[in-house]
Every structure is written in C-alpha cells, then in structure tokens.
Specification:
Layout (H helix, E strand, L loop, with lengths): L1 H17 L13 H9 L2 E9 L12 H5 L3 E5 L4 E6 L7 E7 L5 E6 L2 E11 L2 E10 L2 E11 L2
Antiparallel strand pairs: 1-2, 1-8, 2-3, 3-4, 4-5, 5-6, 6-7, 7-8
C-alpha cells in the first residue's frame, strides 16, 4: 500500500510538472480590457515626478500645472470619463474624458490643464506611471508622473 501511494504521488508530481506553462518572461501585450480594469480600479494620486532617467524632480523645478497634480486624485471611470478630485476637500475642480490609444500603450486625456497623449510606462494594481512633456526649470522635458492608489 505504501508503494502504491508513492507511485500515485510521483505520477501526480509528474503530471503537474508536465502541465506547467513555459513562461519566457515576456509580459503579454496589454488589452483594452486589462488596461481599463487597472485604470478604473483605483483613484490615482501623484506621488513623484521624475526625469526619464529616474531622478526625482523637486517641486520648485515644476511648473504650476504639474505641481497642482499633487493635490488631486485622478479617478478614471469605465464610461471614459475622468475626474480630478481634490483629495483634501473632496471637491471636483476638473473633469473630462480619457481613451486608450489603439495599441493600449498610451492614454488620451482631455482635461483642462492635463491634456494630451500620455505613454503608459507602468500600469499595475499599485502603480501608474505616465510620460509627459512639461517644463522642468523652464526647459521642456520628458517627465514621468508616478501615481499610486489613493486611500
């Protein structure tokens, strides 16, 4: 009986190993459904602004529009609307629309003061990083807007 149990255990282990998927380490291409689900699952609060080579940009180097983003929760909705909610007062000073680009790798946002096509560098349950062109110390630069879920 002990031998039979060992054979069953060994066979189960072999079946499990043979059925394992070969993961080549590449992430699957994002889909509209997966990107939308991640975007609408949280309110997003700006945590950090960085250069394209990951150096933090000081608030004194930012233009007013970028600086004010730190006060707003960005809430994306499945109906392609977006609201900018002041996370201290709960007021909604701004809103507009959003749409994923055809390749699902960038987002078109139409909100006063935050308008354009933003490449999505990172999007998962805990982080949203968008690329934007904005002045840094008065010079137009590529910057990364790093958002985290707002509680």
């Amino acid at each position: 009986m002990k031998h039979f149990r060992n054979v069953i255990l060994l066979m189960s282990l072999m079946v499990g190993l043979l059925n394992c998927k070969n993961d080549d380490g590449n992430n699957p291409a994002p889909t509209a459904a997966s990107q939308t689900e991640l975007l609408v699952s949280n309110k997003w609060l700006l945590q950090r602004v960085a250069t394209s080579d990951d150096k933090t940009i000081g608030k004194n180097q930012m233009n007013t529009t970028t600086f004010l983003l730190f006060e707003l929760d960005m809430q994306f909705y499945a109906d392609n609307t977006v609201k900018a909610i002041n996370h201290l007062t709960g007021n909604i000073p701004n809103g507009g629309t959003w749409k994923l680009a055809a390749d699902n790798k960038s987002i078109d946002v139409d909100v006063i003061g935050f308008k354009g096509n933003f490449p999505i560098l990172v999007l998962n349950r805990t982080k949203l990083t968008l690329r934007q062109r904005a002045p840094v110390s008065g010079v137009e630069s590529d910057i990364n807007l790093e958002f985290a879920p707002s509680l």
